Amino acid sequence: MNKKLRSAFLVALAFFGARSVSKAQYLNVSDSAFNAGTPMTGHLWGYMFGDYYYKSHADALDRGGSNQYTGIPKDRNAFQFRRIYLGYDFNINKKFSTEFLLAAEDNFPTGQVSGSAVSTAAAGDELSNQKLSLYIKLADLRIKNIWNGTDLVIGQQATPAFPLLSEKIWNYRSIERTIADIRRTPSYDLGVGLQGTFDPKTKNYGYNLLVANGTSAKPENDNYKWFYGDVWAKFFNQKFIVDVYGDYQRLNWTSTWHHSRQMLKGYLAYNTAPLTIGVEGFINNLKNDVYAFYKETPASGGDSAVLSSKAKGISAYIHGDIVKNKLRFFARYDHYNPISVVDNNKYSHYLQNTGNYNDETFISGKTYTADHDQTYSQNFITAGLDFTPYKNVHIMPNIWYNHYKTQLSDDLNNTINGSLAGKAKGDYDMVYRITFYYTFGK
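Predicted structure:
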């Protein structure tokens, strides 16, 4: 091989060798490269949480609607997954990125009352053979900085209701949903959203807007869209957070029935590494939602009136360090009132029409009808310890308690609840749990 040919061969070998090394490095980039937005880089992540639970007491009327333990009998114990996530995020280039998330979430565990509205309304994420299944929870395209500080998100995405802010600061979704999430305000939906800050350099003030189907992962089944929006601010070096949220959706809109729901929610939190305190409350205005049945038929005729109502909830919590990076504590209290139009002198019972705001009782032998008590308020308490033996691994002994109390007068309560009228005035679900939670790729 002459000198010129040998030189050319060495140059070519170096060139293609460098390309091979470069390509190998390019396809096996680190998370830091992904986080920096390097084009064609991806990130696999996930987490799981569940419990060993023991239900020491069961509400005699099986109240609570769609909560995790409604209808589970006293003394039931089990190991249970409550959420499994597997996600993949990918940078197409500096301008476009995507996220994809598979989820399995056991919303309605085996053991709830046979034939009740809870057990027949849905099987959670269970197949017909009661095996847990995965579904597509997120699948969206993010277009970054369509103007300075604002991204456009297209597809199935997190809503502004709570997952973008208040749920992250609560930090214990593995223990319980936020109070708006318990009522099933969507945490994700299919639509078009804007997520941005008013001050991109400091990111102390921002907003989130979304127009979506209102059906989460299910196909749209009507012409009514769900409109979401919130604005937030962070003060005192981003330690004090204020968030104001609102949404609106028409549910039925005919010449004879204008039925809609509209939530207003406020959130305040003091959030530091060793200690977090938060308060979140909502009012959901339910237009022409309640059929209120008269005790005595009025002269004008008709056995019921259609009333607008308000469902209200408030949640307060605290969590903090006992031993830094090893042991923490958490405690939370919620109060929820599903109806604001109870008039025991005028009406005998009520039928509410908005899903997840019309909790029922499921006494054996009765059917899902308006002769049940839908007025009862709920008081929820949870508290426990968070032991972290290793980063991203949590073991959390805790209690889960929900108390129910009717708002009906004694005579109406006795008529509707019969021999269990005394329990209707005050009964509860109590569950002792050891919750496990672990993550990877985060």
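Summary: Residues 3-27 form the longest helix (25 residues).
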